[in-house]
Amino acid sequence: MKLIVGLGNPGKFYIDSRHNIGFxxxxxxxxxxxxxxxxxxxxxxxxxxxxxxxxxxILAAPFTFMNLSGIAVAxxxxxxKIGLDDLLVVCDDLDLxxxxxxxxxxxxxxxxxxxxxxxxxxxxxxxxRLRIGIGRPTKNTDAADYxxxxxxxxxxxxxxxxxxxxxxxxxxWVT
Length: 175
Fold this sequence. Notes:
Elements: E1 2-6, H1 21-30, E2 38-39, E3 45-52, E4 55-62, H2 69-80, E5 87-93, E6 101-104, H3 113-122, E7 128-133, H4 143-147, H5 153-174
Parallel strand pairs: 1-4, 1-5, 5-7
Antiparallel strand pairs: 2-3, 3-4, 6-7
């Protein structure tokens, strides 16, 4: 069984923010399966079970805020007895230009608090992560404000195609 976790922050205030691109990806993976992510009793995430190329896959979006994502992931990890090789975390990345993707089989948090929380909670950095570039803010914009802001008009026009590529990448990772 594989687990794909899209990182973000819960609540309507954050729904279209740059930081929530991971949530958008897992929801888009679920769409063709005509299934939506739902909260199961005792879980700190919304999740859904699907099949990709005859592989069982759990899609998840933690209800914890970004910096506490590890608590939710550790719970799913334990419940479904997921191995490190079967975990893919999808998140935003300030250090990548907008729309650029970076898939790594393991590594450090790279300064991403959600990834750091997962590493701390499961006790390992030996899991795959797919980072989606959101670009850097201008000099006068605080990084925290930037990641919590919505995409601008031009970015929104490109976002659908970018998310389609990320969904494809996730499907290839599963197979």
